[in-house]
Design brief:
4 strands, four-stranded mixed beta sheet, 289 residues, 60s Ribosomal Protein L30, Chain: A, single chain, 9% strand, alpha+beta, globular
Amino acid sequence: MKTLLKMTVATGMITFLAGCASVSDVNDVAAVADLNPVIAASAFNKALAADYAAYAVYEAEQEGEWGHGGAFARKAMRAAKNETVEAEYPTDWAGIPNDRIIVLNKARIHMNDKFARGGKQSHPNFAGRAQGQYDCWVEEEAEGVTDSDCMANHRAAMWRIQDTAPEPMAAAPAPKMSAIPAFVVYFGFDSAKLDALAKGTVHSVSNQSGESKAKRIVLIGHADRSGDQGYNFNLSERRVQAIADALAKRGTAGASVTKSSAGETSPQVNSGDGKREGMNRRVEILLER
């Protein structure tokens, strides 16, 4: 599984791989290694440009996929100029099975719907992250990877984007799911075990789901940066599962439970790589109705 890395690459460090990269791809990847968006660029486009740029460098330098790196670099440059840059269309990528195209198309529609309702303005950083990681997800699916970090990162960012514009009027609108204030459960170092406080929080979630008539309980798992990314992603999954199991025992009053994991990619407290941070070892719980 690929893991998106943060990296800074000086132009002189980029190596031309004869037969594997075009001159334009190499130059474009080099250009976005130290990309500075125009002052007039929106907060969303600045975040989007940064995400595309990081992935462009990763694809080229770490994966040797200079064609993809160049393509994402050019999207980064367009976003940095404050141009409108659309998310990838799954059908434009060869090798994605029809059943996965359906999944990707649904995610794209959901994302664009959130954007249309003000998500880019209310949460520009998460919105930029969501689109950048969506495109990364599409690229991974084209390579046969159906459980990529990019997919998890996209979904984790999407949970944080709230609507600011009203839904269009309709003759018979479907009931809208609205977010209820979140709960957070914290964990010990390298642990997915629930302590007494965590169990009390689960009890509160169970009660609140019934009182609020929640339709869905969303769980998003996280880890700190003290281990490698793959291990931390698995650890965040175990933490989510621990909460899900505890909720199953307490009862959810008919609410469905949705599980997602972000590993170390969405810290509550910014810390250096390899650092332990208790606030980042958590599962966020959101009730929707």
